[in-house]
Give the backbone structure.
Amino acid sequence: MSNSVKPKKHLGQHFLKDIGIAQKVARLFIDEVGDDQVLEIGPGMGVLTQFLMEDYPSVHAIEIDRESVAYLKESLVKQGLILTEGDFLRMDVNELAKGKQLFVVGNFPYNISSQIVFKVLEAVPSVKGFGGMFQKEVAERLVAKKGSKTYGILSVFLNAYYDCTYEFTIEPHVFNPPPKVKSGVIRCLRKEGFVLPCDKKLFFEVVKAGFNQRRKTLRNALHKFNLKDTHEFAKLRAEQLSVEDFIKLTQFIQNEQ
């Protein structure tokens, strides 16, 4: 059974084979889902999926690999799994939600994990929870707070909308094939009142500009916004600002335009 689908390097597939870890990841949102839907990205052969189906009333999986799709149709689809073949990155997440709240989980392919995060951020009103397995370095970056060396653009964007925690580390040998690095599991739950109190597009521009030149002070990194030397954040670097600080800075720039 474990050899039924061959992992494909170009898809970044590393199939989880540790049942205990699959159960732990499946239960990340056990107290929050209720009647909402779990959306799994890249189920592969369904090692995680089978436990999601045990714990939650509605599980929808998105899979791009035709061989995995065929495998799942012969196994978990017959047990009630909703399966869609296609590329998650090309889908409308709000449309997938169909009016329900989604909890997006998965053993996310390393090569597109950041793109998956951005996809979730496009649909925050529909995604109440988000979590699963990432390359450890990426997982740490996603939950990082100000002052950390790993704190960056995605840290700010994700934590603007979600309360995120690093849950645990996974060793390479529990995957087939084993990746060259460790993995990390994160859990993100959408904040109450998740609407940004500033222009979202401008917020993203300010954060990106700040971190794209992270060694410079914000006065220099944000030169196109004409940030004056007298501003309270002018002499700081991007990594020294919290999410709330970036929101405050964006509001200031927005009011000045």
About this structure: The beta strands are 15-16, 37-41, 59-63, 82-85, 102-107, 127-135, 162-170, 175-176, 183-190.
